[in-house]
């Protein structure tokens, strides 16, 4: 019989993969790893996975870091550490590469866990959950672990339904009628549909549960082979023949008509996911008290708009269809369909439209900024124009295929 929720969670160790470089998010990842990229005004991308852990009752969490991890380590230590009680055998801890298996950095997701297998030997959990630290979604991991136990699985992979016509963009799981995985297909030209549902496929979410013994044996065997040392490419396909590898159908705690799971791996997908948050009815709900999203708290004053000179030529501080974080001031400027991070300032007669402005960005007087992502601390000079002339923007900034202008941290623009 399956164990109680408390027993299952107490016997589970969670490992969050947070060492990704995020090359396709450059220049946002120039100074930080992908999981540390700000998202939604006050959050970091990793906050969504960690909130899932906390809301699911997961209290033993290791975060494996590697690439430019300073800000991420600080964020986890200060923002998340106090939420775990060491006296109750709870913890969250960042683990950088230890070079325990030789003088090499992590060669892949599986190698990252293999190089830290001593953590499993110390804790000896019944189950190990492997999570990605750079996806945005809401999920009760306890349901997944219970499903894994009920099916007597050696490993279980969480999977989200996607239209078959779009499935070629994902790693696809081929399954039988019992949800047993029969094959892994990496961005296939002809993806396998779900049995009995010819228009739908299952996409790998990068969320895995293993029996600890099975995981350790698979990692040890993989370490001796010439492979990519990757869970989706090597470890899990190697378990298909056991007939004990199952797909878990994603149950979305976001509770919308359409399931929400995003790998915001490109600048355009990051921008699109951000702009969805300011919609009248966003696909992803940040305001759900049933499933709160936590982050590192900052002691900041409330956001503020000033000046209400409605006469022609007057200064009017106005914000429409936008998210505004603490400490932000809109002083006589206009903001539309944008996300303002903490302590952003928009000065008089400036116009910000369809933008993501991260912490401390300052928009000068009469500047016009449209369809842009502006990283932390950038000052946009008075009368500067961004987002209206693509050719001029390309000479100064990164411009995505979707036409989004990206201004990295530390950029200095002439007054």
Which key phrases capture this entry?
alpha/beta, elongated, 415 residues, 10 helices, 6-stranded mixed sheet
Rounded to the nearest angstrom, the distance between the terminal CA atoms is 70 Å
CA radius of gyration: 23 Å
Question: Would you count the extended β strands for me?
Answer: 29
> How large is the count of helical segments?
10
Structure at a glance:
This protein is of the alpha/beta class. The protein is 20% helix and 26% strand. It is built from ten helices and 29 strands.
Written account of the structure:
- The protein is an alpha/beta fold and 415 residues long.
- Helix content is 20%, strand content 26%.
- The protein has 10 helices and 29 strands.
- It has helices at 5-10, 46-56, 70-80, 109-114, 117-123, 141-150, 212-223, 231-235, 267-276, 390-396, and strands spanning 12-17, 38-39, 43-44, 60-64, 91-95, 127-132, 135-137, 155-163, 171-175, 181-186, 200-211, 245-249, 261-263, 304-306, 318-320, 323-324, 329-331, 334-336, 339-340, 345-346, 351-353, 356-357, 362-363, 368-370, 372-374, 379-380, 385-386, 398-399, 405-407.
- Strands 1, 4, 5, 6, 8, 9, 10, 11 and 12 form a 9-stranded mixed β-sheet that branches. A 6-stranded mixed β-sheet has the order 16-19-22-25-29-28. It has a 5-stranded parallel β-sheet with strand order 14-17-20-23-26, with no helix packed on it.
- A hairpin with a 3-residue loop joins strand 2 (38-39) and strand 3.
- The longest helix is centred in the middle third of the chain and has 12 residues, at 212-223.
- It is elongated and about 75 Å long.
């Amino acid at each position: 019989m399956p164990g109680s929720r408390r027993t299952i969670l107490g016997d589970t160790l969670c490992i969050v993969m947070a060492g990704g470089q995020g090359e396709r998010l450059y220049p946002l990842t120039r100074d930080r790893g992908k999981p540390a990229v700000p998202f939604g005004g006050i959050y970091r991308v990793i906050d969504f996975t960690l909130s899932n852990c906390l809301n699911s009752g997961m209290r033993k969490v290791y975060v494996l870091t590697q690439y430019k991890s300073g800000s991420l380590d600080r964020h986890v230590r200060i923002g998340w550490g106090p939420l775990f009680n060491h006296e109750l055998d709870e913890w969250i801890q960042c683990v950088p590469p230890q070079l325990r298996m030789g003088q090499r950095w992590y060669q892949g997701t599986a190698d990252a866990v293999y190089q830290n297998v001593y953590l499993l030997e110390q804790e000896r959990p019944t189950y190990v959950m492997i999570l990605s630290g750079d996806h945005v979604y809401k999920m009760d991991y306890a349901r997944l672990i219970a499903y894994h136990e009920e099916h007597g699985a050696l490993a279980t992979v969480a999977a989200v339904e996607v239209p078959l016509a779009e499935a070629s963009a994902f790693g696809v799981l081929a399954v039988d009628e019992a949800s047993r995985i029969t094959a892994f297909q990496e961005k296939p030209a002809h993806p396998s549909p779900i049995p009995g549902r010819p228009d739908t496929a299952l996409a790998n979410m990068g969320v895995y549960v293993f029996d600890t013994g099975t995981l350790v044996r698979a990692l040890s065997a993989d370490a001796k082979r010439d492979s990519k040392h990757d869970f989706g490419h090597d470890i899990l396909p190697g378990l298909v023949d056991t007939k004990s590898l199952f797909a878990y159908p994603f149950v979305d705690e976001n509770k919308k008509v359409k399931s929400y799971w995003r790998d915001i791996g490109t600048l355009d997908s990051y921008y699109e996911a951000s702009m969805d948050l300011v919609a009248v009815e966003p696909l992803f709900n940040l305001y759900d008290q049933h499933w709160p999203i936590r982050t590192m708290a900052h002691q900041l004053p409330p956001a503020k708009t000033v000046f209400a000179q409605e006469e022609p030529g007057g200064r009017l501080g106005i914000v429409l269809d936008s998210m505004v974080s603490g400490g932000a001031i809109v002083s006589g400027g206009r903001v539309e369909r944008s996300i303002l991070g903490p302590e952003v300032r928009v000065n008089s007669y400036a116009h910000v439209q369809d933008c993501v402005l991260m912490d401390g960005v300052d928009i000068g007087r009469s500047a016009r900024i449209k369809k842009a992502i502006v990283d932390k601390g950038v000052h946009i000079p008075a009368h500067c124009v961004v987002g209206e002339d693509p050719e001029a923007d390309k000479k100064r900034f990164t411009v995505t295929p979707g036409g989004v202008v990206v201004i990295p941290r530390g950029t200095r623009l002439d007054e």
